[in-house]
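Q: Got a minute? One more chain.
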Amino acid sequence: MTAKTDEGKASGRADAAGERTRRASGPAEPAARARGEDFVPVRRASVSRQVTEQIRRRIFQGTLRPGDRIPSERELSGQVGSNRNTVREAIRTLEELNLVHVRQGNGMVVRDFRREGELTLLPFFLAEGADAMEAMRALGDILRLRRLVLAEAAALAAERAAPEDVARLRAAADAAGATGTEAWRDDLSLFQALVAASRSLVAIWIFNTFARAFTGVMERLPGLWVQQPGRRETVERLVRAVERHRPEEARTVLDRYFEGVDRAVLGRGSADGPAGRAPRAGAKRR
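A: Always. Here it is, folded:
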């Protein structure tokens, strides 16, 4: 009881000091309250994650805009029915995603995710963004970049792969090809082995960034995974091209395969955005 009382007094002194600092620096913009709406109470399970999700959705959907101030930790704690430590953890997550910036004496400010965001935002944006057309465009862009990166990695692998690289690639190819909701993980392992065979640090680093984003997308929108007919034959041609050191053939095999895959993925989209995304009332239509 004494510790809690002391903590409350310390918090009160810190809040008062912060208020004096804000007054000395001049009037601040009023905190944005989601255009008049408080944040809602959350369930106890994964409280921090739920707080993060509420704020992130409002940023993606334009309810909270760049430059808006979000309520203080104390206000948010009261609105969501949680303690300040939990809210602070949620704020740290939002900072790591480059969605908000915490300014000393000026609270938490929304950043412009379109200009300052990174690829880690993609899974959340595809599932939560308000503009279905923009979400589909982002999906098309990431598929196109994925295709370019893997096709070039295949060419590099055909130039540089050692026998042990080819052996690992063939083992990954043999393990892939299953069906089901988790089959995409085998595909990811296959392409990880392909990129490793390129012996290119840059290709590996780029792939790792893509792989994290891809994993997040598939966990939220599994309907986006497509396995084209003739996939096993395509993978076998790819492995042979790498083994025989034929870079142009390896590049062409993957490029043509992903051309069909990407067409199928984008074809599954609708007016609500990428396949598997929940329809949203009032969302913009294509």
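A: Residues 1-29, 281-286 have pLDDT under 50 and may be disordered.
Q: Perfect, thanks.
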